[in-house]
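yo

u said u wanted the structure for the complex thing, so here. seqs first:
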Amino acid sequence: MNAGRAAAIIVAKEVRAEFRARELLNTTLIFAFVVVVIFSFAFDPTTAESRRFGPGLLWIALLFAGSLMLQPSFAREHANDTLDALCLAPVSPFAILLGKIAANFIFLSACEVLLLPVFAVLYNVALLPVLGRLVIVLMLGTFGLTITGTVFSAVAAQARMRELLLPLLLLPVLVPLLLAAVEATAGLFAETPELQWTWLEILIGFDVMFFTASWLLSDFLLQE
Amino acid sequence: MKNFESLFIAYMIVWGIFFGYQVTIARRLSRLREDIERLKAQLETK
Amino acid sequence: MKNSIWQSLVVGALMAVAGYAALFIAPDEKTMHVIQRIFYFHAPAGMVALIAFTIVFIANIAYLINRQPRWDWLAVSGAEVGIAFNSVVLITGPIWAKPAWGVWWAWDARLTSTLVLWLLYISFLLLRDLMADPDRRAVFSAVYGIFLFLDVPLVYFSIRIWRTQHPQPVILGGQNSGLDPTMRKVFWFCWLAMTGVMAILIHQRYKLEQARHEFEELRLRAEQLSAEEPGVSPPAGAIRA
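structre next:
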């Protein structure tokens, strides 16, 4: 079975499992929304400042929600011992990892699709003129977050205190991604929206580097 | 010679960190070595 | 034990000599005078920390290739020593900044990157702390360590661009702008001394890890032997290190 098909099957399995329960998607979405609202109380969003804080707030909400959502990715397998079963299948470890990454990416993107309009309303941001470019930034950022988060979830699943550990492992590593995503988004929300290439390059560089590393190290990640 | 106190404190801290780390390791190492010798002796008597 | 005493003395001596050079041999700096001398420890420590973290990276890769425990020992040693040097940078930075710029922390590119670097490798050590099984710990911390090191250039690069786009209110007197030749010699001498200290510290920490490993093996053997002879209790006491 080639890697692509295997990954696709795993994605389907994850998505189906999640759709039946739907708890992960709902909880993540609500949590992201809560973060946005709570931060607003801390930072008093008048129009002028909301322009400045908006992008940062959006990405912080996504990062926090993401790092909580990605944890069950492997912990669930651990709890049910299904990881061994997966590894016994005649499928490359990378295909399994890819499947999980893809599934997490879909979940997180679904959250973003629902969160974005709410955010735009609360912070009076004009989304439509920059929507295409914003989607690019969001996808690049989410992809980086998902790759790193899924891989680190596999690492954290081996340790104690994994719920607290995953954000701790993840957030410092994501600093370049956070910076680039926030600055790129800020560029789009500015008076004259522009897509800044430097930040896009960093996002792309991050994604490529970490995706390649995941591929090369996938054998070690999925052993029991 | 303004700020000499700050400089002095800084140097003391730096020196303290390295020397302290070294001494901590050395002490733990010697204690471990004692434990190892003890265990070896115990195993030999069996 | 005697070996360790010698090594402690060498560390002390290296630091003392470097300190002497920095305090008395280096010429006085025009604008910041005495406090500028922190630079001779502050900057080299940062470079040495990066050397230590590079050693961690190499050890991580080596471990994943041949699974020999000594690479894992080297990795944890490099990480701890790297954190020590990194902490020096983060402590001396504000001590220098307050008299020089008026603020403890200015979120300048280099210091901020050092802060992130510190967080990255603290997470590395924390991860190891939370994993009990030595083999699993070695593998997974090696994988995590590799990701960390790949992140480092991204961190430096992105933070530098971030800071050039949002210039800080405090003016950074160029730390390396036009170093007088004596200053440069003192700088590299201190760097050399600190690299020596790094090597000794890593070596010591490595021996400690090696000893722990030996102790664990002996303990396991003792437990196996006592399991075969009922009535004999296994040696008491967990590792005190």
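Chains B and A do not touch (no CB pair under 8 Å). The first helix of chain B runs from residue 4 to 45.
cya
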